[in-house]
Amino acid sequence: MSSQNRTWVGPSAPERLNILRSTKSIAIVGMSNKPSRASYFVATYLLSSSPYDVYFVNPVLDEVLGQKVYPSLADLPVVPDLVEVFRKDADLPGVAREAVDIGAKTVWMQLGSWNEEAARIAEDAGLNAVMDRCVKIEHARFHGGLHLAGFNTGVISSKRQVTA
């Protein structure tokens, strides 16, 4: 989908920061057991470098990274504050409906994901919706761990980095 077809406008950076600050638990829908997949990479980061309780959802897996994987959002032992979705765009409205049904506060669709119907489903039910953003990148950016380009430079400075 080209960007000119996008009519939905998501939360601003301060609003996304507030979402992440008020979030205590995250369910990753579409969790993979393959280290090369974004969900695995993000889950590893969230488990090691964030304060969140993290739950995995995938109907075909039993365990990833030493944690139980649940078949659906409804099967989780808690209602997650934030549902992070790693699924193809066509699946997003269904996941948004599930998030609404269980009482989640936010539906967060991963970098590259865009489905305005899913965002409307979430927002119409009073949930926050975020699309085409990565929780890992956003969390690290807000907590001083990332250069704006998305790389950890190890340097915290307001000055532009100059390379020789």
Automatic annotation (TrEMBL):
Name the domain of life this protein comes from: Bacteria
User: What SMART domains does the database record attribute to this sequence?
Assistant: CoA_binding
All copies of domain CoA-binding, residue ranges? 19-113
Q: State one Pfam family annotation.
A: CoA_binding_2
Which InterPro entries does the record match to this protein? CoA-bd (IPR003781), NAD(P)-bd_dom_sf (IPR036291)
Query: What name goes with this protein?
Result: CoA-binding domain protein
